[in-house]
Design goal:
The protein is built from nine helices and seven strands. The chain is α/β, with parallel strands linked by helices. It has a single domain, classed as Rossmann fold (3-Layer(aba) Sandwich), CATH 3.40.50.
Length: 249
């Protein structure tokens, strides 16, 4: 996979899966605009510095990707500085877990705004640039929760199911312009969130994974790099599960 001369934006890339994706895209040749909220400015700049150490260009842009104004600023900054946008990875996301009877309006709205609306806003802002150059890759980070549901995560499952619907719809809209749109649905990935589980919780989780172990952020990043490459040119409107077999059982 060779992404030399490609420019990517990765939202939510200060840490975890987003960070791994940004570093992997740089490793295979892309210049990368990394993004996260203002509170994550310091670790975000560290990611950009690491990308530059790979002899790739990188910008660290703090922006709330659930805000139209911030998204437009993010995209305009990327284009004015690096000249174009070839690859968009919609990775930004949060959880606000709660049983439906106790879930507040704020818990619902926050997750839908950051996990789903942000993908819509970023896609809308970048796709016009991709259409002009008749080439683009949009990769949305969904979740197997959006496919199978999960107790206490009605908001998150709804948002990620929406991401999958968005992916399939936009793929049909832009295919004739040389743009592919796909989603990746991670399962249990070894991130700070899963590391907070106690040993009993981890063992219960492991029982649901046919491969028998948690995935790593790099497992997701490798899949993103593939979907961003020329090798994946005939794949669009698809959902790739990176879940150790969880969704298949």
């Amino acid at each position: 996979m060779d992404l030399t001369n490609r420019v990517a934006i990765v939202t939510g890339s200060a840490r975890g899966i987003g960070q791994a994706i940004a570093l992997k895209l740089a490793e295979v040749g892309a210049d990368v605009v990394v993004n996260d909220i203002e509170a994550a400015a310091e670790p975000l700049e560290s990611v950009a510095t690491e990308i530059r150490s790979k002899n790739r260009q990188s910008l660290a842009v703090t922006a709330d990707v659930s805000s139209t104004e911030d998204v437009n600023r993010l995209v305009e900054t990327a284009v004015s500085t690096l000249g174009k946008i070839d690859i968009l990875v919609n990775n930004a996301g949060v959880t606000r877990d709660q049983l439906i009877m106790r879930m507040s309006d704020e818990d619902w709205d926050t997750v839908l705004d950051i996990d789903l609306k942000s993908a819509f806003l970023c896609t809308r802002a970048t796709v016009r640039h991709m259409i002009k150059q008749r080439w683009g890759r949009i990769i949305n980070i969904a979740s197997i929760t959006g496919l199978v549901g999960n107790p206490g995560q009605a908001n998150y499952a709804s948002a990620k199911a929406g991401v999958i619907g968005l992916t399939r719809s936009i793929a049909k809209e832009v295919a004739s312009r040389g743009i592919t749109v796909n989603a990746i649905a991670p399962g249990a990935i070894d991130t700070p969130m899963t590391q907070r589980l106690d040993e009993n919780q981890r063992q219960e989780f492991l029982k649901r994974i046919p491969l028998g172990y948690f995935g790593s952020p790099n497992d997701v990043a490798e899949a993103v790099a593939f979907l961003a490459s020329e090798e994946a040119r005939y794949i669009t409107g698809q959902v790739l599960n990176v879940d150790g077999g969880m969704a298949g059982v």
